[in-house]
């Protein structure tokens, strides 16, 4: 048994070494154009082996580990990268097609990249841009890590109220908001005259009647006396647009509209038109975001100042001007 295992392992090792040697020879001997022409024939066996192994992960892991499938110059495509594009439980035919397509795309990209590296005119400028981006990315990631670890994400109610009171002019409405009740019923719905009475009332009894009626007959029903809703949102259920609905609201608070199919009823308890001050409760989410962003800015600014003072104190800054 042990001899058979050693023999099997030896066979797998020979296959891996042969594959690596073949790819290495392929990379050294041929130019970009020659590689592109011969690649489909050369890698076909790798695609077949890969797609077959995708159907048997245990065998795949033992046989290929993370073997190089294609190499173009210093660019290598590993088997693990191809594994990630093959959906679980996919059939061999689909796996073969998607794998071959991915490899061809990867090869074209690698060839173009190598060609560009040789012929690009402003390589130093690009290297500097890459380094600048790398520094910026690392710094940003670390700052986000610090914010998560060190900074509280809580905004107190007092902070929100104070900000709203001191910056009320920043909170002007861009669209009209309303509180009220809306119901849409078929034009031939039973007891429609009762609806015309109930929807105008705010009594508990009439509201209960509408609730019960809407369960059986309403196409749409929304009770929003307790929250602000954009008129544009409500207009989606009407045969008129938000501007038309707003013009009607400036004249009356109970609106009835009917077309050939439905009857629409809207009772508005409160209204704030575009340009009015936004209500406090409507502004809370926006204020929280603004205050949190300001806290982040202050936190990072203070951290930078602390780093600067420490570096100065320890003599870590060498000036040559």
Can you give a write-up of this model?
The structure is a single chain. By secondary structure, the protein is α+β, with helices and mostly antiparallel strands. It has 3 domains: 2-119, no CATH class; 134-158 and 284-321; 173-272. The chain has helices at 2-29, 32-54, 57-64, 79-83, 92-119, 123-150, 157-166, 192-198, 204-217, 231-235, 242-249, 280-313; strands at 68-72, 75-78, 177-186, 220-230, 254-258, 262-272. Helix 2 (32-54) packs across helix 3 (57-64) and helix 7 packs across helix 12 (280-313). The longest helix is centred in the last third of the chain and has 34 residues, at 280-313. The protein is flat. The model is unreliable at 21-42 and 57-64 (pLDDT under 50).
Which segments are poorly predicted (pLDDT under 50) over 5 or more consecutive residues? 21-42, 57-64
Question: Strands across the major sheet, in which order?
Answer: 4-3-6-5
Tell me the number of strands. Answer: 6
SSE class: alpha+beta
Radius of gyration over all CA atoms, rounded: 34 Å
Q: How many angstroms does the end-to-end distance come to?
A: 76 Å
Domain count: the total is: 3
N-to-C SSE series? HHHEEHHHHEHHEHHEEH
Number of DSSP helical runs:
12
Kindly report the average pLDDT value. 82
**Gross geometry:** flat
Tell me about the biggest sheet? 4 strands, antiparallel
The proportion of residues in beta strands is 5-15%
Oligomer: single chain
The helix content, as a percent range, equals: 55-70%
């Amino acid at each position: 048994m042990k001899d058979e295992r050693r023999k099997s392992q030896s066979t797998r090792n020979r296959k891996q070494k042969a594959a690596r040697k073949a790819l290495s020879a392929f990379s050294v001997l041929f130019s970009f154009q020659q590689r592109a022409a011969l690649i489909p024939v050369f890698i076909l066996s790798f695609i077949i082996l890969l797609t077959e192994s995708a159907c048997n992960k245990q065998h795949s892991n033992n046989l290929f580990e993370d073997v190089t499938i294609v190499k173009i110059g210093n660019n290598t495509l590993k088997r693990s990268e191809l594994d990630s594009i093959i959906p679980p439980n996919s059939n061999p035919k689909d796996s073969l097609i998607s794998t071959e397509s991915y490899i061809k795309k990867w090869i074209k990209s690698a060839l173009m990249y190598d060609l560009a590296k040789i012929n690009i005119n402003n390589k130093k400028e690009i290297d500097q841009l890459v380094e600048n981006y790398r520094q910026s990315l690392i710094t940003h990631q670390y700052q986000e890590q610090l914010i998560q670890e060190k900074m509280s994400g809580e905004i107190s109610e007092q902070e929100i109220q104070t900000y709203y009171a001191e910056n009320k002019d920043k909170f002007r409405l861009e669209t009209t908001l309303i509180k009220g009740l809306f119901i849409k019923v078929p034009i031939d719905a039973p007891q429609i005259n009762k609806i015309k009475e109930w929807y105008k009332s705010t009594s508990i009894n009439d509201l209960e009647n509408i609730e019960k009626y809407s369960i059986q007959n309403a196409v749409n029903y929304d009770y929003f006396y307790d929250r602000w809703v954009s008129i544009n949102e409500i207009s989606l259920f009407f045969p008129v647009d938000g501007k038309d609905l707003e013009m009607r609201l400036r004249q009356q608070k109970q609106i009835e509209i009917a077309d050939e199919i439905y009857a629409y009823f809207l009772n508005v308890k409160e209204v704030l038109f575009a340009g009015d001050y936004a209500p406090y409760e409507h502004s809370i989410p926006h204020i929280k975001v603004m205050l949190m962003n300001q806290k982040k800015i202050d936190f990072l600014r203070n951290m930078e100042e602390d780093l600067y003072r420490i570096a100065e104190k320890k003599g870590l800054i060498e000036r040559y001007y």
